[in-house]
Amino acid sequence: MSDIHDILELERPVPTEINKATILGLRSNVPVKKKEKEGMRRPEGMHRELFALLYSSDINKELPPLLQTDTTPQQGYKSTKARLGMRRVRPWAWVPFCNPARKDGALLCHWRRVADQGNEYPFAQFDKHIDILQYTDTEYSEHLTSESWSRTDTDTLMQLCQQFDLRWAIIQDRWAHNKTSTKWCDQESNSNARTIENLKERYYQITNILKKARILTGTEGKQVHYDAELEKKRKLQLTKLWDRTPKQIEEEQQLLSELRRIEARKKERERKTQDLQKLITGGESGAADHNGNLGPSGTNKKYNKTNKTKKLNANKMLNKDGINGSSNNGGS
Fold first, then answer.
1. Cβ atoms of residues 183 and 209 within 8 Å
2. Which segments carry the region annotation Disordered (predicted)?
3. End position of a domain, from candidates 233, 267, 295
C-alpha cells in the first residue's frame, strides 16, 4: 500500500496512534461549547416582570415603546414602534365655533385642525332632549282644569319639565311658589309647596289626558299609571328600612330563623297526619273486605281486634301531636 502511494506521489496518511480511544471509537476532537456571556442579573428586591420590561438578554430584541403606537384597524398591533418625525405635523388653528345645543348664540373658541374647520361641532350629537307634550288653551279649558292646580302653576310645571328633561329632583328644587318674586320656594315655611310626588302626579295626569284626547297609538299613546300615595308609602318604608340599628337587624334575623323552624315543624306534623290518615283509611277498607268474604253470618274476631288496636294507636298519636280531626270520632 505504501509503494502505490510512492508511485502515484500521494501523501501518506499520518498513522494514528493506537490507544484506548481509537479502539473504543471515542471522539477526541469534540468541539467544546463556549459559555454564553451572562446578561445583567436581576437586582435583589426587583420583581421579575419589572426586570423583564427594563432589561433583556438579547441585545437585538426590540424594547417596548415608551410612546403610544399607531393602532389603526388596518395595522392592528403590528406597528410596535412610535413613528416620530416621519411626516409634517398637521396644522391646527384657534378658531371660533358655535355650539348648536345652546340657544343664546354664544360664540366660543377652541383649537381645531385646519382640515376640520368646516365640520359641525362634534359634541352636538350628545344634545338629547325629551319631547314634552304641550297643550293649547282649548285643551286646557276642556280637559286639564283642576281645583288644586291653577293655569299658572301648570304652565310653570310643564316649562320646568321641558327645561330639565324630567329630572324631578331639580324640578322640585327650582319650583317657585311666588312667580313675581325671585326667591325660590321653601317647603317648611310655605304651605303651598309642592313635593316631588305632587309634581309627578300632575305631569302624568296631563300627559295621559292629552294622549287620550288626541287618540295617540303605539308607544306615543301608552298610558302611565302613577300613584302618589303608594310612592309616599314606598319611600317611607325605605327610610325606615335604612334607619334600622344593628341591634334591630340582628333581632330581625333571629325572628326569621325562628319562623323557618316553625314552618319546618308544621310541615313535619302535616306529613305525619297524612300518613296516619292513610293508615286508618286502609285499615277500615281492609276490615270491610275481610268481613264481606266470610259470608253473611261469619265474622273474624281476631282481625277486628287487631284493626281496632291499630286505630286506637293512631288516634293516640294524633292526640299526642295536638291534632283534632274527624279520625278521633271514627276511632271511638
1. no
2. 266-332
3. 233
